[in-house]
Amino acid sequence: MDLRDLVYKVYERRLERKLTSIQAPRHVGVIVDGNRRWARSNGHEDVRHGHQKGADKISELLVWCKEAGVEYVTLWLLSTDNLSRDKKELEPLLQVIENLVDDLVEQGWHVKPMGSLDLLPDHTAHVLKNAKEATSHRPGLIVNVAVGYGGRREIADAVRSLLQEHASKGASIEDLVEVLDVEHIAEHLYTRGLPDPDLVIRTSGEQRLSGFLLWQSAHSEFYFCEAYWPDFRRVDFLRALRAYAARNRRYGS
C-alpha cells in the first residue's frame, strides 16, 4: 500500500466513524456515468473495457450499501436513448449487462429489472426476466437494474397502464378524471411498491438527471461526483452519505 492509499484509508475510517450514528438513506439511486470516458482516458480504443470495469464496480457498491443499511438501490445501466447507439458498441454493452445481471443473481442479491423490456433484444429481456423470477423470494437489499429506461417513457407507460386498468373495469375517461391523483400514477410506475429515492448519486462530473427517476426524485437529495464510475471509491460513497446526512430535507418547501 503506497502513501496515497494509506491516507485515503485513514480518511475513509474517519468518515465511517462519523457516519455510524447517522440515519442512512433507505433508497439510493445511482447514475453510473463515465464508463466510455474512463476507457478513453486510460488508453482503450474499445470502450467495452470501460463498460466492463464499470460493471465490476457494481458489486462493490452493493456491499457498501448493505453495510451502510441501505434497503433499495436503483442502478441506471442503459437508457432508452442508448439503444440508438452504433450496433458495434451496443451489442457488447448489452452482453456486459447480461453478464452483470447473471453475476448479481449468483451473488445472492434480490434483482428487479425496470424499464421498457419490450425495446430490448429478446435475449437481454429474457435474462432480466429470469433474474426477477429467480430472486423474487430473497430477503435483504433490493437491486433495481434500470435497462432500457427513460423517465419520460416511464411516466407515459404508467399513464397508459392506468388507462388500460380503468377501461378494463368499464370506467370512462370522465370517471377517471374525477378520481385521478398523483398516487394513481405512482401505483403504475416501474418502482411501484418501493419508496422514492432519498439520495441520487451521479458520477463523471455531470450535474443533471438526464431523465432518471423523474417522478420519484421530486424530493430526493442529489450528490454529483467528479470521478468516472469505474474510479468511484468507497470514500466517495461515504462522502455522498455524509453530504446527505448534512442536508435539511424539506420535501419541496
UniProtKB/TrEMBL annotation:
Keywords (A to Z) from UniProt: Magnesium, Metal-binding, Transferase
Active-site annotation: 33, 82 (proton acceptor)
Matching InterPro entries: UPP_synth-like, UPP_synth-like_CS, UPP_synth-like_sf
Residues in the signal sequence: none
Binding site for substrate: 34-38, 51, 79-81, 85, 202, 208-210
GO cellular component, one term: plasma membrane
GO function terms (MF aspect): ditrans,polycis-polyprenyl diphosphate synthase [(2E,6E)-farnesyl diphosphate specific] activity; magnesium ion binding; Z-farnesyl diphosphate synthase activity
EC number: 2.5.1.-
Entry binding sites for Mg(2+): 33, 221
Keyword Metal-binding set for record: yes
Cofactor annotation comment: Binds 2 magnesium ions per subunit.
CDD domains tied to this protein: Cis_IPPS
Similarity-based family: Belongs to the UPP synthase family. Z-FPP synthase subfamily.
Subunit structure: Homodimer.
Name of protein: Isoprenyl transferase
